[in-house]
């Protein structure tokens, strides 16, 4: 290095680093010091034009996501070492990651390369392409709808899943607010609702607190979080009741606006009640008392049998990391009150992907499918390496 002060000045300016950090590394006596990694190509090229003695710009490859925040919590991203961090990047790492190449040279005891020495080269092997089922048009449309709901309801987050019930292929999975895959370590992205802006944390956070906020930003609510499904779960109670013969479409019920189970008064969403109605009408009205009655007819043993048979006690096996399991009462702890609330989707929790998978098994005639994004891994020459089915 011929002019240390000039080197320090230019690197501080072009790399946007403080002088103390750069000076410490420039003045350190060592064979090689890394000043900064993951520098934009334009910046690296500009530093080259200064022709600074002792300064070298190395090139590397970096994953680039052309759609920025589209399906960010599904696709995931890679770190500085191109290792997958979250999402499909982690799940299919072994297919996506190639083999690094090597240049073999001779050096002296200090690690300095010997001029005109023999050199050998091991060529790198490119990783495979991953073909997935996600439909970009459906994904974008679902994202627009999710952001509309986020604004209208002033919600903290909104999720949407679109799945083919016949084969489990996922056509869209939206978790808004999404984040920019090309800038995954910047907090407070896409905070379009007032409630989120109020909860926004400072970019000055460091260490564990910042990592906690990043983990929350990257979290895929569709698979990582559970919630009470509510009335959407009534289709499972209806299916179990009809399949077992506990209820028929024409069975008569009466809804006064509530149902008393043991010492608990459980209300219907219609305070005045629906009055006399058949089971079919009760389903159309989403009437809580009707579904409570169906649950009571099934009994704890019968309902628990169907709950398990639908696959609700386990996980779906989706090809994304971090899937949460169902939180359900133990059979021995279920009384009539718990049975009543479970019958219309309360007092237990499942993931959104578990709910859509269970609903799909009703839609397709009883076959439980495994939700998935992966379709095939394809090599650089277009040859199919692996089919995911």
CATH superfamily of the domain at 230-350: DD-peptidase/beta-lactamase superfamily
Briefly note the structural class of the backbone: alpha+beta
Described by the principal axes of the CA atoms, the overall outline is elongated
Largest sheet: 3 strands, antiparallel
CATH fold category name of the domain at 230-350: Beta-lactamase
Strand order in space, largest sheet: 3-10-11
Strand content: 5-15%
Distance between the termini: 57 Å
Mean pLDDT: 91
In brief:
The chain has helices at residues 4-15, 19-26, 41-49, 72-75, 87-91, 93-96, 136-153, 194-199, 207-218, 221-224, 234-244, 279-284, 288-309, 336-343, 352-363, and strands at residues 102-104, 120-122, 129-132, 158-163, 170-176, 252-255, 258-261, 264-267, 275-278, 374-378, 384-387.
